[in-house]
Amino acid sequence: MTLRRIQCDQLQVGMYIHAFDGSWFDHPFWSRNFLLRRESDLETVLRSDIATLLIDTSKGRDLPLPAQAFAQTPAEDTRTPDEKTAAATQVVNRARDVVRGVFDAARLGKAIESCAVSAVVEEVVTSIESNRHALLKVLRLKKKDEYTYLHSVAVCALMVNLARQLGIDEQAAAELGTAGLLHDIGKVMVPAEVLNKPGKLTDEEYVLAKTHALEGYRLLGEVGNLPATALDVCQHHHEKIDGTGYPHGLRAEQISEAARMGAICDVYDAVTSNRPYKDAWSPLDAITRMRQWSGHFDPQILSAFMVSIGVFPLGTVVRLRDDRLGVVIEGGRNSTRPKVLAFYSTRQREFTRNELVVAGDERSGNAIIAEVDPAAWGITREKIDRLVRLGVPWV
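^ thats the sequence. predicted structure below, dont judge the formating
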């Protein structure tokens, strides 16, 4: 346990609250210690009478180091972009080969080598921590004939990356990565002509394709030493919040957080990949459409996923690391460096002079750390729409 006392306005999503200072009656939550996962809960704390609190940095995020500290740290990655891409490509290729071996073994009724899976996941976790952008970029460039295996690697990486955004601890993040790597193992039991059919599936073919969730659960259950999270995600990553998913038609909180994360990572990678029957959507198109599918995904986790990959639709209200609110007015090239019109100080609780900024990386004051509901700050949607019109086009 590593405790640190911070000011209330230093609190961020992903931090683990160990205790609030002052009386139990001063804070608005039943529990005194919990992982702060949602922006809405953060805003509730900021509006309370709490002045200081204790966070446990061993269970969640710590305060960011100042910019000069990052510049001086010997652990800073000084590799060139090409070197980072080459390193990420090696990780992806090794992971792909392991996944191919796991799928082939399952197809032949042989044992799955859990040690090989664990080694791959560990390597992906390390790469996400040190080389996140390069790894996710390489995984987006998968070829159609490699989709089956690289999709599993991509979902693994996206799950670990999302866990990182949510402040989930390292061990649980690795288990989520394992779940992502193995979530589609049941597809080895579905005929290839169904999986790769270029046109729409018939009703009979669709029923057959859906069996992969339960088949995968059965296959993983025979391994015996995999984390329960892997079996859960394998079985339930096609469930939907409104109960229209499969195989069990679970609703909302009946679906575990891990399975809700898996649903988002699986769909995002699928729709942004070239497939035999469709061309890839851009990341921005994918996120925009996924947010419009009411009842499909957990909106809070989808919001965190959006932050984790740095893709924000036009008009999204966000919180910057320097405690300003801004509205996304342009996605930028490939939507990876959104342009934001900053307009409000959360510390002063007042509107500021509008400033156009390019969202920086996570060490920057301009880094986007969360999506925000403007109503929680007394800001109307009409005000946001006016700001969008003011900020476009980028000048």
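Confidence is low (pLDDT under 50) at residues 65-74.
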